[in-house]
Amino acid sequence: MLTAPALPALLVVDDDPTIRAMFARALRDIARVEVAASGGEAMRFLATQAFDLILLDLHMPVIDGFVVLQMLASKPGPNHATPVYVVSADTSDSARVQALKRHAVFFLTKPVPIGTLVALVDMALKKKNAHKAQGAAAAATPTPSPVEAGQGSAHAGAGAPQARTAAPLKPRG
Q1: Can you tell me the distance from the alpha carbon of 130 to that of 135, in angstroms, rounded to the nearest whole number?
Q2: Is the CB of residue 23 less than 8 Å from the CB of residue 17?
Q3: CA distance 24 to 16
Q4: Does residue 60 carry a pLDDT above 80?
Q5: Distance from C-alpha of 45 to C-alpha of 12, rounded to nearest angstrom
Q6: Which of 19, 20, 18, 72 is nearest to 45 (CA)?
Q7: Nearest 10 degrees: CA dihedral of 71, 74, 80, 82?
Q8: Domain layout of the chain by residue ranges
Q9: Spatial CA neighbour of 23 closest among 51, 59, 57, 46
């Protein structure tokens, strides 16, 4: 029996409950959505679960999105390389630059049309899934030995240097 592939994991972090619910509802068909109401709650999720994409608000009480971005960029963990899309009402160049310098790969300004958000998230998740599939295929492909690849000699001992020679160049004439 074939099983459907698992949906990619997405974390939505926003202190506004309306935004969290709206994003989760719009994205639930393309991802397994977890929601966090604060930067602290997001950091607890991020320390224990791997996500394929993170949607992050910047301005939240106590621990803001900038702190979350800094933690992701500086600490090894299951989400160190996870792409982050910042979704913020802050339109300042300073906020954009700070977010992109830390760990964000994309900056969306609220209000974001839901159709645009879904299309961007879907494209990012498909791209990440394609990279995962390529990596898995490469890992499953055996690497030929130097002899199989036509390099070296079948008589060379294990660990022996492999001599490679080039044919002499013939002058054009």
Answers
A1: 9
A2: no
A3: 12
A4: yes
A5: 11
A6: 72
A7: 60
A8: 9-139
A9: 57
Sign of the Cα pseudo-torsion (31, 34, 37, 41, in order): negative
pLDDT tens-place string over residues 139-170:
555 554 444 444 444 444 444 333 333 444 44
Structure tokens at 99: 């977010």
Length of the chain in residues, anyone?
A: 173
* Cα dihedral sign, 137-141-50-97: negative
Domain topology for 9-139: Rossmann fold (3.40.50)
Q: What share of the chain is helix, strand, coil (3-state, %, to 5)?
A: 40, 15, 45
Query: What's the pLDDT tens digit per position in 86-99?
Result: 999 999 999 999 99
Whether 65 contacts 79, CB under 8 Å: no
Mean pLDDT of 102-131: 93
pLDDT at 128: 80
Residue type, 107: F
Mean per-residue pLDDT over the chain, rounded: 83
Q: 17 — phi, psi (to 5°)?
A: -65, -30
SS (H, E, C) 2-66: CCCCCCCEEEEECCCHHHHHHHHHHHCCCCEEEEECCHHHHHHHHHHCCCCEEEECCCCCCCCHH
